[in-house]
Amino acid sequence: MRWSLTEQARAGTDAVVVPAFADQLKHVPAADFVAACGFTGRPGEVLRLPGAAGGPAQVILGFGTAAALDDDTIRHATARLARAVRGFGRLGLALPAPDGRAPGPTAVRAAVEGFLLGGYRFTRHKSAPGGPSGPEHVDLLLPDGGGAAGLTALDEGRRLGAATLLARDLVNEPGQDLTPALFAERAAAVAADSGLRCEVWDEERITAERLGGLLAVARGSLRPPRLVKLTYRPDRPTGRYALIGKGVTFDAGGLSLKPSAEMLTMKADMAGAAAVLGAMSVLAGLNCGTQVDAWLPLTENMPNGDPVRIGDVLRMRGGRTVEVRNADAEGRLILADTLTLAGECRPDAMIDVATLTDAAPIALGRKIAAVMGTDDALVDRVREAAGRAGEPVWPLPLSDRYRWQLESPIADLVNYTIGNRHGTALLAGLFLREFVPPGVPWAHLDIQGTALCDAEDGEWVRGATGFGVRTLAALVREPFASPR
User: Fold this and answer.
1) Domains of the chain
2) Strand pairing of 369-373 and 393-395?
3) pLDDT digits over 120-134, tens only?
4) Exactly one of 80, 332, 381, 433 is catalytic; which is it?
5) Is 332 annotated in the active site?
6) What is the pLDDT of residues 193-236, one digit of tens each?
């Protein structure tokens, strides 16, 4: 899809989008007819009208009330528009201008993101994709042509949209087509295209680095694990972040085997790693000024081979021991090793992203991810970045009142508390905190509820959402210094 900025629709345009506010419908073309059709102007509502003889069709697009317009509304509306205008070759898209004010750069970026995300379809495994595609070219119609700021915002929107779609593609792939080794190959290819340094550790290197949690989880699979390290380093970095993404490419639960219904979506248990890779892919294009190191532990969690047994004691990197009480609580085991590893580089802040617990969406639903951490300033920064990205998160506490539940009679920790179904998202966070080096600010994003979507809803379509890519990209563009 090609994009451009212009003041007026170009020759050959098939349809022009006319923005409409719910409280100003009298200003839209053919207002009486539009009202008679039942059009109310709610965000994302679309009404297609024929154009004049030989001219482009008109598409009326609702944006709600003028006073309530924000970037999230624009992103949501243009996402729904993308699904309604398939079949047009060239589209002229005018953005809303409340009180006559020209749309700003953030509105331009949100519109491009929304359109790209809303029009996404994963068809790689279909014999015939079916249905119309397109548009092939979108002209954003801005009163002043957008200027330099508009062009920058357009480019950022395209890059962030593409990075999110990269993550969606990875999460949507079946486990047979995205094994740990194949994921590592994809990551290396993305790194080569994105100006990143890339290291891929095989099982021998992982063993030498004493990543006991990752090795234990991988024992049950016939496919060996990988660990990918990606580094983005600008010429004069102003800070340093570490991003860690859980990469379980298929989670059967190990010996704690999942029921079939729960296993159906477990190809998506690497959504954290996909989000981190997507964010890393766009940093050079956004001229990010900080250094960012990414760590992706990749494995399957299967009951084949020599799976870890309930009651086994693992020795993690750094020497801590963990008694395995539940083989399906594997994500925290591979993240624990990786948090230790990443912390040894002494970044200014560490953020991990993981589809970790069902308790997070039980508390917050399927639209809001959980965030917790050791540094309030960092958690606040994550929330602010997520808000700007249109990927809301909400903080959960890490209370020491629950720390005793991680105690083991034979090891330093247990990975799961049997018989307790309360506060399990917090217990997972408390477990991870044990492996964060002292003095390194850390935040944990539990995206279990937001990684997949059951139906079309604004910029989300059925399947993978790519949640977290834009949040991470927004977060690491500015250095972090803890006030503590």
Assistant:
1) 2-161 (3.40.220.10), 178-475 (3.40.630.10)
2) parallel
3) 999 999 998 777 888
4) 332
5) yes
6) 999 999 999 999 999 999 999 999 999 999 999 999 999 999 99
